[in-house]
Amino acid sequence: MNLNFMTTRILQIQLSLLLGIVTLLGVATVVAGADKIQFSTDNLVLDMNGKCTVESFVSNNLTLLNSEIGADSIFYLRTTADYLFCIAYGNQDNPIIQFYDAFRFRYKWGGSTETKNEDSSATIAGVTQTVKGTASNKHLLWMRECWLKIKLGTNDNLNHYAQIGLIPYQVGRGISLGAAYDATDFLGFGPGSSIDQYAPGIVLSFNPVQDRYIFDFYFALVQNLQTSLDNNLAPIRKNEIGACPVRGVGRQAYIMAIRQDILVYKKDKKKINIEPYIVHQNSPDQDLEFKNDVDTYLSTVGCAVEGAYNRFNWGFECALNFGEVDVRPWDRNEIKIEKDGNGFLVEQYTKVFTQDPSTTKKPQQAPVNDAVINLLKATPQTTATNGKNIGNVPVLVNGVLTPTNIYTAFDRIRPEQRRLLDGYFFVADATYEVRPKVLNLSIGVGYASGYIDLQRDENKLSAAELYNLDFTGFIPLQSVYGGKRLDHLIMLNQGAPRFNVALPNADVSQENITAVLQPGVVNEFTNLAFLGARLEWKVPQLQRYAISLVPNVIGYWAPETASFIPKHKTEPQFADNFLGTELTLKVSGLFCEKLKLAGYFSALIPGQHYKDMCGTLITKHKLPTGSSIGYIGNVSFSYLF
Fold first, then answer.
1. C-alpha triplet 319, 320, 323: angle, nearest 5°
2. For a Cys staple, 493 with which of 23, 186, 514, 550, CB 3.0–4.6 Å?
3. What's the pLDDT at 478?
4. Helix (H) or strand (E) holding 20
5. Residue 498's CB: how many other CB atoms inside 10 A?
6. How far apart are CA 256 and CA 245, in angstroms?
7. Using CA atoms, how far apart are residues 244 and 214, in angstroms rounded to an integer?
8. What is the pLDDT of residues 344-390, one digit of tens each?
9. How far apart, in whole angstroms, are the C-alpha atoms of residue 565 and residue 506?
10. Is 347 exposed, middle or buried (0-12, 13-18, 19+ CB in 10 A)?
11. Which of 57-66, 105-114, 139-148 is the least confident region?
């Protein structure tokens, strides 16, 4: 049966049931307002509305900032439609029960596949092979948000409630903990539009003092694989040294948060509000270099403050990470099926060789046979054996068993490690209404701590050093932060190259280095400082069409920088901290009451940092970075219904 037909029929059936419920409870009143369609009876209200957006996107030079790489150019058209339903029972202004359901349709024009299944595995001749997820068409509706909210208590003046389902929840500005449980590339004016699904969770909210104090507790189950016996017995830790190979039980990943919303002062146009919070993430069996090879325990303590004074409003937020990442001891050696010199498929080890890796740049991988298997079983799995000759066994060479020395790679055994987390961030901004409802001027500043991996050889580190390594970069959770009073349209959303190792192009083939905790190219709020200004002009002569022009300029710096090696010198030097300047213009207007035309155009002018780092090879294609201007553009039409 056609998938489009099935999803359409499901939506029609659900809508019919909702209308049937309203009809059964009494004669319904139908109200078609500017923002929604409403059906109501004495004690039941059904609201329906939605939004359809068609938008185009173009970018150039943003992945590499290198105009010589002509392939670094992106263009696509996309349609996004959201359908929203809300049923409220009880008092219309303060309902006892609310049910909210939001469906989304999203499609890139001309794209045959938009989603895919998770990767799986298959065993071929005793060797585990990864089977890439099967891509499928996304011409369907899926549930983006769905929750049930129940009022607690009978006092209409105090809003106590319990909420359960797919809930949009964040603390502060959404940096320490955002709502982006499942998000795709950011487009449009609001980063939240990129969120395709909110996390499944529970909120308990209490309002002891009306309009003054709110306290809530949040719990989200973000990963649960304890759903079958097969999952519990999955041998995910076969390469972990000294561990039980199966997953076991109780390995769920979850997030908990406690948040308070306190109105400290309010009088006339003066107001101060503070929001202290604590967030904790428990994430076992996460991926660093391999599947399920680290456990993460992250806590964040922070506070957000917002204030207003007549025509001036301001705010700031700061937070501190603490916790640890436990990196498990791991044997990186695996078996892979390769072609030998005669073109036959053979099983070979990836980190065991028949040639000395200290004298041969690309040593020959050792074959898998009983003699080598028994030798590896008898060899201690410690870093002391890395890069060493571990024995001499017969190996088939040109059809003849020949005594052969066996060596291990310098990075075969990864030692057990612990990374202590102590990142932090601070942001502050303010807006002044130069001309109320016409012209606003905003300024903002921010700083997020960073981390540069010194690429230390773990074969030479003591156990005490390995167990007390610091990670000083701030780690956001589910964040799609794009600014509050400033607009970060490139550096924090579309992204530009960011480096976090001391020598990105260094030859580390004879060292044992564990990958850093974040990818080599990041666009999150970490290792970043900025200072910027924003002007918002609502053109009074075009007030009928709500035309607004919003220019934005922001300068960015990297608190911690990677090193670079100039061609005419041998000693490494630190790259300059200045990343560059982002210039943005946002335009929007409302036509025919329900049709909105919007667009933004932004350019990143690289600073000295990228000039210093020119030639650094990044991405899986190992392409060089440059210092060319990168830019993006987005134009969208939105219909509100």
1. 145
2. 186
3. 92
4. helix 3-24
5. 24
6. 29
7. 45
8. 788 899 999 999 999 998 999 999 999 999 999 999 999 999 999 99
9. 10
10. middle
11. 105-114
